[in-house]
Amino acid sequence: MELFYALPGQIDRKAGLVMLDGDEFHHLVRVLRKKRNECIAVTDGTGTHFDVCITAIEKSVLNGTITAERPVARSATTVTVALSLLKAPPRFELFLEKATELGVSAVIPMITARTVAQPSGDRIAKRLIRWKTIMLSAARQSGRYYLPDIIEPLPFGKVIGLSGYDRKLIPYERSPHTASDVRCTGGNLLFLIGGEGGFTAEEVLQARDAGFTEISFGRSVLRAETAGIFAVSMVRARLLEQTAEEWL
User: Fold this and answer.
1) Least crowded by CB within 10 Å, which of 64, 119, 185, 226?
2) Using CA atoms, how far apart are residues 103 and 248, in angstroms rounded to an integer?
3) Three-state DSSP class for residue 107
């Protein structure tokens, strides 16, 4: 069954009611031609599955009644990717879409020494809205019960100082350690991905001093968005190989 998303304020759990509008309404009513009394699956993006019976379809709003709900357990492995803002916004957006489909838990847009694109506050606010829309669409397509988080861009120095991660990794082409040398399942992982031109030698040293482990993604040089996608897909592949566990 296809999964639909209710944004904050669209689910009244106490009253057992759901209201869907916008893209969800369009897809349900205009594309799938859903009718009154049909049942759909809805999530709030924070790990709850709701069985919903459609009670009314208005001009731009679908109303439903919650008939059952259940929690969906989150994976024991979470992956955060801090990716440098890229000169070409569509490349960063491609990463957001594919990483969401693959199971990324959070994305941190990052500003490094070689970051070319550093938009102003107003432009960042607009981009955040667009980024969240892209990730919501990708989560819907892949049936995820947990929406990834994305925050305003942070400078490299603040990112490497973040706490709460069990393993912190920085892909670096000169590293002697391959991805197979590093345990990538269980706990909270943080990957640092540089932008055009990669990280400076000084940044790599700073990351190392902050507890990051250098790893290599192979001899071929990957574009930044490809490296970010590779990091998430590598962890997903390890999960499937070792535990048959999928991210939700």
Assistant:
1) 119
2) 7
3) strand
Report the residue count for the chain: 248
Q: Which of 37, 96, 33, 99 is nearest to 63 (CA)?
A: 37
Per-residue pLDDT of the chain (248 residues; tens, 9 = 90+): 789 999 888 999 999 999 999 989 999 999 999 999 999 999 999 999 999 999 999 999 999 999 999 999 988 899 999 999 999 999 999 999 999 999 999 999 999 999 987 877 788 899 999 999 999 999 998 999 999 999 999 999 999 999 999 999 998 876 666 666 677 778 999 999 999 888 999 999 999 999 999 988 888 889 999 999 999 999 998 888 876 666 55
Rounded (10°) angle between helices 89-102 and 224-242:
0
Q: Report the distance separating Cα 196 and Cα 207, nearest Å.
A: 18
Tokens for 173? Answer: 């082409």
The rounded distance, in Å, linking the Cα atoms of 197 and 141 is 33
- Residue of 235, 64, 246 whose CA lies nearest to 143: 246
Query: What's this model's pTM, rounded to 2 decimal places?
Result: 0.91
Contacts of 58 (CB under 8 A, 6+ apart): none
Two tokens at 153? 């861009």
Which pair of tokens denotes residue 12? 């009244």
DSSP 216: B
Could you give the CA distance from residue 233 to residue 178 in angstroms, rounded to a whole number?
15
The residue behind tokens 């190392």 is: 208
